């Protein structure tokens, strides 16, 4: 029997877009996205979705109320479903064994326990959150230990590779879908059922099946290798600044080798996002637990290089401003971890803002999609600062870049939003303190034009 009813636990950046696209492409399947958070579900059912993703509004508008539902009724959604995606958050542990590195599986475990409590018929349970290798086994252990008579489970691993800001396109045109399952008749049957969902819009050759552990490790490996490319080019950006080479020219030359390829070679202030750092820390922790310290140290270096890059950039700002920021106003353009998203998780802008605040600066922030409340939370939570009031009185958030930059000594570009390229920098210059500085952490601006206006300009991987 084919899948008629899907439920997804977790209405976040992964669960929401993934299930919306499944609903769009599989009109005969009822898809319910269930979350514990009443607020989140209310937002998914409103005109303003809880996440900004180009193209997502259209998809949701087409399907919501027809075959796509957002609900807080987790029990009912599980009861009805033939297949359940677990798409809950997997933050890094903040306490105990593996603190700061291991994945905290409490939400995954919570989801598995609810399924075990509620299910009354056979279910295919699909692990979609990024989870450390062997998490499927933990899910299986919980489900099997609490199994009711007449109920069987098949557990599959189906890691998600969408990137934020391009989620809908990534889902519609996925390079590949990975499905890991048990190599038994029932396991293969479950894998086939999940394949048939994706085959509604993807060619079979793009759907790759493998054993569960390979599938789980592939997700960590893909993110680790993508982040490694960024750390590699960022490490070379330091060499460029020291020698007079231009990292964009180096990246272009290197990327033309088809064995290397041109993507993910954009030097920057550093990578952010909810996945790269978390997944690598996880990989490092797993390697240590497997008694592979050399492997752990190798991957840790990708994180260390990213910290170094962020530090190098802020040091450049401080040094250029005569080694003192006390009493100065600095405008931060962009707070999201990349363009076309409102997400700020692990955003390099947080590091930049915190460092400038610690140096005594007042900061004026503009981002087209990040909410004021989010910025406030990111800069004043206890992990970032000890005295939130001291920070708060020096942070102001604006809804346009012109007022944000007025009376500032410097502008710091932290996110590569397209709209920053075409701002009227002449007008902005007129309203800034002099000498006026621009630090382009994303290499998106026309540096020569800015120098001609009168700015002092610095960027990554190139001496100007
Ligand atoms: C290399 C570069 O490829 C070439 O562009 C440069 O001009 C000279 O150095 P070469 O050393 O001749 O060429 O061979 P290459 O095919 O790069 O292999 C180098 C080594 O890496 C070999 O020992 C090869 O067996 C090994 N290798 C290569 C792997 O172990 N795995 C791979 O996936 C690829
Ligand atoms: C990443 C993976 O790309 C995706 O496959 C996985 O499912 C989740 O993690 P995401 O974090 O959403 O996606 O965005 P991504 O485009 O990978 O960018 C991550 C960070 O790297 C951003 O801060 C981005 O600005 C930075 N980056 C990316 C660079 O600094 N240079 C680059 O060349 C590419
Ligand atoms: P991701 O980026 O991986 O999608 P998010 O943090 O955006 O992660 O979303 C995860 C969602 O999962 C949150 O909205 C959270 O409320 C939800 N969640 C956590 N545990 C459960 C659970 N047991 N059942 C349903 N939803 C859950």
Report strand %: 5-15%
Q: What's the CATH topology label of the largest domain?
A: Rossmann fold
What is the distance, rounded to the nearest whole angstrom, between the alpha carbons of the first and last residues?
Answer: 65 Å
The dominant shape is: globular
Low-confidence stretches: none
Structural class: alpha/beta
Cα-atom Rg, whole angstroms?
24 Å
Count all strands and give the number.
Answer: 14
Helix content: 40-55%
Q: In the CATH classification, which architecture of the largest domain applies?
A: 3-Layer(aba) Sandwich
Descriptive account of the structure:
It is built from 18 helices and 14 strands. The chain is of the alpha/beta class and 464 residues long. The protein folds into 2 domains: 5-202, NAD(P)-binding Rossmann-like Domain (Rossmann fold), CATH 3.40.50; 210-464, Rossmann fold. The chain has a 6-stranded parallel β-sheet, sandwiched between helices. Strands 11-10-9-12-13-14 form a 6-stranded parallel β-sheet, with helices on both faces. The chain has a two-stranded parallel ribbon with strand order 7-8. Strand 9, helix 13 and strand 10 form a beta-alpha-beta unit. Helix 11 (276-289) packs antiparallel against helix 12 (293-320) and helix 12 (293-320) crosses helix 13 (348-358). The radius of gyration is 24 Å and the shape is globular. The site of adenosine-5'-diphosphate has 22 residues, from helix 5. Involved in the biosynthesis of glycosaminoglycans; hyaluronan, chondroitin sulfate, and heparan sulfate. GO terms for molecular function: NAD binding; UDP-glucose 6-dehydrogenase activity. Belongs to the UDP-glucose/GDP-mannose dehydrogenase family. One of its GO terms (cellular component) is nucleus. It catalyses: UDP-alpha-D-glucose + 2 NAD(+) + H2O = UDP-alpha-D-glucuronate + 2 NADH + 3 H(+).
């Amino acid at each position: 029997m084919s899948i008629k009813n899907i439920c997804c636990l977790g209405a976040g950046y992964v669960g929401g877009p993934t299930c919306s696209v499944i609903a769009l492409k599989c009109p005969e399947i009822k898809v319910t996205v269930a979350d514990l958070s009443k607020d989140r579900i209310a937002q998914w059912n409103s005109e303003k979705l809880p996440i900004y993703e180009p193209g997502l509004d259209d998809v949701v508008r087409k399907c919501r109320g027809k075959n796509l539902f957002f609900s807080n009724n987790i029990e009912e959604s599980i009861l009805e479903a033939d297949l359940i995606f677990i798409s809950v958050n997997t933050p890094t542990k903040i306490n105990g064994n593996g603190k700061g590195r291991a994945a905290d599986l409490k939400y995954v475990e919570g989801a598995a326990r609810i399924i075990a409590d509620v299910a009354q018929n056979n279910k295919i349970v699909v692990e979609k959150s990024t989870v450390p290798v062997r998490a499927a086994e933990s899910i299986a252990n919980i489900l099997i230990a609490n199994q009711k008579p007449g109920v069987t489970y098949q557990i599959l691993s189906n890691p998600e590779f969408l990137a934020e800001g391009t989620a809908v396109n990534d889902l519609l045109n996925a390079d590949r879908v990975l499905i890991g399952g048990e190599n038994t008749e029932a396991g293969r049957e479950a894998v086939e059922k999940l394949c048939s969902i994706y085959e509604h819009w993807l060619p079979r050759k793009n759907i790759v099946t493998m054993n569960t552990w390979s599938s789980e490790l592939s997700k960590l490996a893909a993110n680790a290798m993508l982040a490694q490319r960024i750390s590699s080019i960022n490490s070379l950006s330091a060499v460029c600044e020291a020698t007079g080479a231009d990292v964009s020219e180096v990246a272009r030359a290197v990327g033309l080798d088809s064995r290397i390829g041109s993507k993910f070679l954009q030097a920057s202030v550093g990578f952010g996002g909810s996945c790269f750092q978390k997944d690598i820390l996880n990989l490092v922790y797993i390697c240590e637990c497997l008694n592979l310290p050399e492997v752990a140290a190798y991957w840790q270096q990708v994180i260390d290089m990213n910290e170094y890059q962020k530090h190098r950039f802020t040091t450049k700002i401080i040094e250029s401003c005569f080694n003192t920021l006390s009493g100065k106003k600095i405008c931060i353009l962009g707070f999201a971890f990349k363009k076309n998203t409102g997400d700020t998780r692990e955003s390099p802008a947080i590091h930049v803002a915190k460092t400038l605040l610690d140096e005594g600066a007042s900061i004026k922030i503009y981002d087209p999609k990040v909410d004021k409340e989010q910025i406030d939370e990111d800069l004043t939570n206890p992990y970032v600062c000890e005295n939130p009031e001291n920070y708060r009185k020096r942070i102001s958030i604006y809804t346009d870049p012109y007022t944000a930059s007025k009376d500032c000594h410097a502008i710091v570009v932290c996110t590569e939003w397209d709209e920053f390229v075409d701002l009227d920098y002449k007008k902005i210059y007129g309203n800034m303190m002099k000498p006026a500085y621009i630090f382009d952490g994303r290499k998106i601006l026309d540096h020569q034009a800015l120098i001609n206006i009168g700015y002092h300009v610095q960027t990554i991987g190139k001496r100007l």
